[in-house]
């Protein structure tokens, strides 16, 4: 029902308010409506010990600035000191290098951006936005694309997908068939602790006083962490030190994302070998094949319906023998073959009650063929009692790493948005102010102008992106 999500959200907010008031009264927490801050200074000695690695930390933070604000960072640090032609050449080289970097990442990861339905023909502009303004530009352009899609569909009487949505464990994101698991909150807590911890380390590296650290609770759920520097001293500090301090948090998330991705890749690759070591011969016996359990007529996403190529060709109960001439005997072998050359035409051989059926299909725009498959269990095989626990533990570990990777990326990109209270808001104020010198205003007034400009732009985009949640 359309009211399901608003009702769930209202109930969640009510419970959060009650819990927050209890924390305020009995735990003396700093509470703001439904949000509570639990403060401590215990991590500060750890920050001090890590802050001794000055060169490594400075390089780390500068790389974060480059990834966060693209070729503008190179120009801000180096270009402004050069003559006009050298400056233009440096800017062009850094812009091209960063644009190529994103295109390379897209290729390595299997084209999640270039073959994205929303991005489509706008992919070169997405690449250019990253080259110009790093993940800040990437985030802004992504929000703009989604906003255009939403408004365009509303004009046609179609309700699209939201561009932003709250992450509530166990609750499906409205209009998007994704339900965050409960352990996504654990991933998010780790992510935010790492994010704020790196702020604390860079703060101490530059001599900033850390007044307190702690966690942020939305009702009873941990939604973040914080490091509280002395704001008065921070405002008087050297701009490059402040920029380094601000970029450290999102860069820590990008680093953790990379680590999670490597562990996930290694885990998937090693899972078969581990299973074979713990349960010799079991993988070859547990499944006898793969069968079709459902064939859809079409698939709908974000108000658009895509036909299923398999409709009218595949039938429920068909046994899938091979794909492109390669035998399919288990879910693993099926997944491997389907992921090869995604979007390309594939030839399937089916067994339909003893009759061979051959079909060559090209996936639809969503990359789907329109059939659902399930493994055929070998009923004669008796599984070891520990096998079910092993499968659960393996799945949980890999799924945890997946959400750790995904949420790190989202948190990093969101924090680079050039709007307060995100880290990117203050970075933009400091880094973009020199480029607005044509206004002829004092520095502080120009900074306020930059901040207000991005607030108006981003709030408008966020509101439009949230409309499909409710209307």
Structure overview:
With 471 residues, the protein is α+β, with helices and mostly antiparallel strands. The protein has two domains: 41-269 and 398-469, no CATH class; 285-379, PDZ domain (Pdz3 Domain, Roll). 55% of the residues lie in helices and 15% in strands. Helix 2 (44-50) crosses helix 6, helix 5 (123-155) crosses helix 11 (387-415) and helix 12 (423-432) packs across helix 13 (443-466). The longest helix is centred in the middle third of the chain and has 40 residues, at 239-278. It is globular and about 80 Å long.
Produce a short descriptive summary.
This protein is α+β, with helices and mostly antiparallel strands. 55% of the residues lie in helices and 15% in strands.
Write the layout of secondary structure elements.
Blueprint: H1 4-26, E1 30-32, E2 35-40, H2 44-50, H3 54-77, H4 84-108, H5 123-155, H6 183-205, E3 210-218, E4 221-229, H7 231-236, H8 239-278, H9 282-286, E5 287-295, E6 298-301, E7 304-307, E8 319-323, E9 326-327, H10 331-339, E10 346-352, E11 355-361, E12 371-377, H11 387-415, H12 423-432, H13 443-466
Antiparallel strand pairs: 1-2, 2-3, 3-4, 5-8, 5-12, 6-7, 8-9, 8-10, 10-11
Helix pairs in contact: 2-6, 3-4, 3-5, 3-8, 4-5, 5-11, 5-13, 6-8, 6-11, 8-11, 8-12, 12-13
């Amino acid at each position: 029902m359309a009211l399901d999500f608003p009702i769930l959200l209202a109930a969640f907010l009510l419970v959060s308010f009650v819990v927050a008031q209890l924390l305020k009264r009995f735990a003396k927490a700093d509470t703001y409506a439904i949000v509570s801050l639990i403060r401590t200074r215990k991590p500060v000695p750890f920050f001090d010990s890590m802050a001794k690695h000055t060169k490594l930390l400075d390089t780390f933070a500068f790389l974060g600035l480059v990834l966060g604000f693209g070729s503008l960072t190179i120009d801000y640090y180096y270009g402004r000191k050069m003559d006009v032609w050298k400056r233009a050449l440096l800017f062009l080289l850094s812009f091209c290098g960063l644009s190529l970097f994103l295109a390379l990442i897209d290729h390595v990861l299997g084209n999640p951006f270039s073959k994205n339905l929303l991005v489509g023909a706008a992919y070169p502009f997405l690449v250019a936005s990253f080259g110009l303004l790093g993940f800040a530009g990437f985030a802004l352009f992504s929000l703009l694309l989604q906003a255009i899609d939403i408004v365009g569909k509303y004009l046609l009487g179609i309700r699209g997908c939201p561009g932003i949505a709250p992450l509530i464990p166990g609750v499906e994101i409205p209009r998007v068939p994704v339900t965050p698991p409960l352990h996504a909150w654990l991933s998010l807590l780790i992510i935010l602790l790492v994010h704020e911890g790196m702020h604390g380390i860079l703060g101490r590296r530059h001599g900033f006083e850390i007044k307190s650290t702690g966690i942020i609770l939305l009702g009873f759920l941990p939604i973040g962490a914080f490091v509280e520097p002395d704001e008065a001293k921070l405002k008087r500090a050297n701009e490059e030190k402040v920029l380094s301090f601000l970029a450290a948090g999102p860069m820590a998330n990008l680093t953790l994302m990379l680590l999670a991705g490597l562990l996930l890749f290694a885990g998937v690759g090693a899972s078969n070998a581990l299973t074979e070591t713990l349960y010799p011969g079991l993988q070859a016996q547990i499944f006898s094949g793969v069968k079709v359990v459902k064939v859809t007529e079409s698939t709908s996403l974000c108000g658009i319906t895509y036909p299923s190529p398999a409709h009218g060709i595949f039938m429920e109960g068909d046994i899938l023998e091979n794909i492109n001439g390669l035998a399919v005997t288990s879910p693993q072998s099926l997944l491997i073959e389907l992921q090869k050359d995604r979007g390309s035409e594939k030839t399937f051989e089916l067994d339909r009650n003893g009759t061979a059926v051959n079909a060559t299909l090209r996936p639809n725009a969503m990359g789907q063929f329109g059939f659902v498959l399930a493994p055929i269990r070998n009923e004669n095989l008796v599984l070891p009692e520990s096998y079910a626990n092993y499968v659960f533990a393996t799945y949980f570990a890999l799924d945890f790493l997946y959400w750790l990777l995904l949420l790190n990326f989202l948190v990093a990109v969101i924090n680079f948005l050039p709007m307060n209270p995100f880290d990117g808001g203050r970075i933009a104020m400091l880094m973009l102010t020199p480029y607005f010198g044509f206004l002829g205003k004092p520095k502080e007034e120009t900074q306020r102008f930059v901040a207000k400009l991005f607030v108006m732009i981003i709030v408008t985009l966020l509101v439009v992106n949230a409309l499909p949640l409710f209307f």
